[in-house]
Amino acid sequence: MNLSRAFLNFLEILDTGTFAENFKNLIILQKSIILAYNLIMIEKIENAAKFHHLDRLDIIRILATDEFDEFLFKTADSVRKKYKGDSVHIRGIIEFSNICKQNCKYCGIRKDNPNAERYRLSPDEIILFAQHAKEKGFRTIVLQSGEDGFFSAEKMAGIIKKIKSLDMAVTLSLGEKTTGEYEVYKKAGADRYLLRIETTDKTLYGNLHPNMSFENRVRCLKDLKKLGYETGTGILVGLPGQSIESIADDILFFKNIDADMIGLGPFIPAPDTPLSKEKGGTLTQALKVMAITRLLLPDINIPATTAMETLHPQGRLMALQCGANVIMPNVTEGDYRKKYLLYPGKIAVNTSAAQNYDATVKMIESIGRKVSITKGFRRDT
Ligand code: SF4
Hints:
Elements: H1 3-15, H2 19-51, H3 56-64, H4 69-84, E1 87-97, H5 123-136, E2 140-145, H6 153-164, E3 169-173, H7 179-188, E4 192-194, H8 202-208, H9 214-226, E5 230-237, H10 244-256, E6 261-266, H11 283-296, E7 303-304, H12 306-311, H13 315-320, E8 326-327, H14 336-339, H15 353-366, E9 370-371
Helix pairs in contact: 1-2, 2-4, 3-10, 4-11, 5-6, 6-7, 10-11
The chain binds iron/sulfur cluster (SF4).
Iron/sulfur cluster (SF4) binds at residues 100, 102, 104, 107, 109-110, 146-147, 175.
């Protein structure tokens, strides 16, 4: 029954019958309206899978209820299959420095956390870990660090060139840099850059990021796009003060800048940070944001993130079945992984890089998917 039919029924009910009969009919009417509304929303999700568009209000409606979750996840999975196939890209992360000049309030390695045990790998160590990852079968290295001034653009360029000579794709996640620095990395051969916007709510952004500016963050993302990087962004889902309206704006922002990769993590309160006592985000809400993103940007790369697995033992497996097509195991060797604690309960801090790779392959194959043999660019087939 559609809404206009339901409304006509409503007029008939008011017109005729006893109170008891009218009351019964009102209940039927209410159920009819809910059913009609649900059918409309299901149709909108189906259309989003075909035309990759959703209005802000519809995104808010989907985020505000669990009514459509099952259908949303199934539909996002079918879009992933259609555009990205069954291959899953495995990218190896090297967390090479947890020294950071910034003070993001949610982050366990923020500058003002005196309890973070700091470390910095040498360029030789970074390259050695990349070589080991290559031998194991990784095709991409993700170099991730805090905003650490020790690694000048020139130093990074040397590292990037050496990893590129191993015939691997290089993704960087080094935070906010100048246009000139991004240029130097690109010239050295870097392929991709990850820089989460975290939230597009400017007031919230300002509250969470002391001495940083939303405008500069957007400038960085625009620079990266202009320079030809595959550009990744994303948000933390469930931040204190974040509304579903602002999450809808975030998703539309991803579409608007034509992001090539989207990384989404549930907010997990980290000890020794100003947000340590706050309530965290939920896995379901993060999966919903991911699934809607897959509908709107069907061919991008979306990782199943480790933070999802921190909240649920099967978190990444679930994500792979709700739109994700990338997994990024940690290939940092030794004790360093335990010290790169952006949030507590990080998974796989005690296993070796080789064990992580094998476990990831097993996970992928357990759901009938396969490991990609390409470097996994957005428009690879
Ligand atoms: S989120 Fe990134 S930039 Fe912010 S404090 Fe943590 S490592 Fe530094």
